[in-house]
Structure formats: structure tokens, C-alpha cells
Specification:
By secondary structure, the chain is mainly alpha-helical. The chain has a single domain, classed as Four Helix Bundle (Hemerythrin (Met), subunit A) (Up-down Bundle). It contains six helices and two strands; from the N terminus they run H-H-H-H-H-E-E-H. Strands 1-2 form a two-stranded antiparallel sheet. Helix 1 packs antiparallel against helix 4 and helix 1 packs parallel to helix 6. It is globular and about 50 Å long.
Length: about 170
């Protein structure tokens, strides 16, 4: 990628992420505190742990895109998130902070090849797509947890039984 194309791609993916981020916020906010320990199977994560993974991974990927260092190992205690009702606001705050840094990147920064644990070597901007697909995957898992955990499923890409689709006028 040239610096110019990397920066253009980065900004295009940022617009997509902003749309997905609002949906992620709604899904995170839909997990009730009483459902934090819901676990559909012994091999599955507990609901709050999965929700934190969704939120923290976006933060970590945005920071990785800027710094080249992936810090996705932060735990909930370090982040100060002890219950689901704290997570959506935390998510918006930390991603707002990280997004400001991503928006300030130069074309050269966006085109720089970053190594992700030896598994991928891509331009920094290309990790926006990886972050989006990773987040959508885990957000889908979390949305399946919501009803059994006592929550309501928000509209995601269309209405749900709990939140019918409201087309824009």
C-alpha cells in the first residue's frame, strides 16, 4: 500500500467502525448485571468475560494500529470494570481516546507493516478490517447470550424480537 492509499483505506474503515461501534455499544449495554456469570457451556466464557473481550479487543486493536504493540491482555480488574452496567461507557471512553490517535496517523504510519504475533504482517490500516471482523464475530456470540442471561437483544443489522427495526424516514 502506498501511504496515500493506506490513509484513504484507514479513513474508509474508520467510518465503517463507527457504525459498528454503536451497535457494539448497544449489545454491551444490553447485558444485565444479573447475567454477568451466564455461561452456556463449561468451555464457553462467562457473559461478562466475553463482553469485556469484545470491548477491550477494539481498544487494543486501535492502539496496535497506532503503536505496533498489541495490548489485548488487559483484564477487567485493571480496567476497573466489575459489572456489565459499567462496560458500555468504558468501551466508548477508551475507544474515543484510541480513535483520536488513529485519526492523527500519517499515510506513512498507516502503510507501515505491523507484525501480529508472527501470524500476520500487514499494513497498519489493514488491521482495521481484522478488528472489524473479530469484533463482529464475538459480538454475535454475545448477542446469543443476552436472552438466556436475562437481557433483551437490540436491533443489530435489522430488528429483533425485542427491538423491531425502525427504518429512517
Amino acid at each position: 500500500m502506498t501511504p496515500e492509499s493506506a490513509l484513504q483505506f484507514l479513513h474508509m474503515q474508520l467510518e465503517q467502525y463507527l457504525r459498528e461501534r454503536e451497535t457494539t455499544r448497544k449489545v454491551l449495554a444490553a447485558l444485565p448485571d444479573s447475567g454477568a456469570d451466564y455461561q452456556p457451556d463449561p468451555k464457553a466464557r462467562k457473559a461478562l468475560d466475553l463482553a469485556f473481550h469484545v470491548a477491550n479487543s477494539d481498544k487494543a486493536f486501535l492502539e496496535f494500529i497506532v503503536t505496533g504493540n498489541y495490548g489485548g491482555k488487559e483484564d477487567r480488574a485493571e480496567a476497573g470494570v466489575t459489572k456489565p452496567s459499567e462496560l458500555a461507557d468504558w468501551y466508548m471512553k477508551v475507544t474515543d481516546e484510541a480513535l483520536a490517535k488513529v485519526r492523527a496517523m500519517s499515510g506513512e504510519d498507516a502503510a507501515k507493516i505491523l507484525d501480529f504475533y508472527g501470524a500476520f504482517q500487514m499494513p497498519a490500516a489493514a488491521y482495521m478490517t481484522f478488528m472489524l471482523t473479530h469484533g463482529i464475530h464475538h459480538r454475535g456470540q454475545l448477542s446469543v447470550y443476552l436472552r438466556p442471561a436475562g437481557g433483551l437483544v437490540p436491533s443489530i443489522y435489522g430488528g429483533s424480537a425485542d427491538e423491531p427495526w425502525q427504518p429512517s424516514a
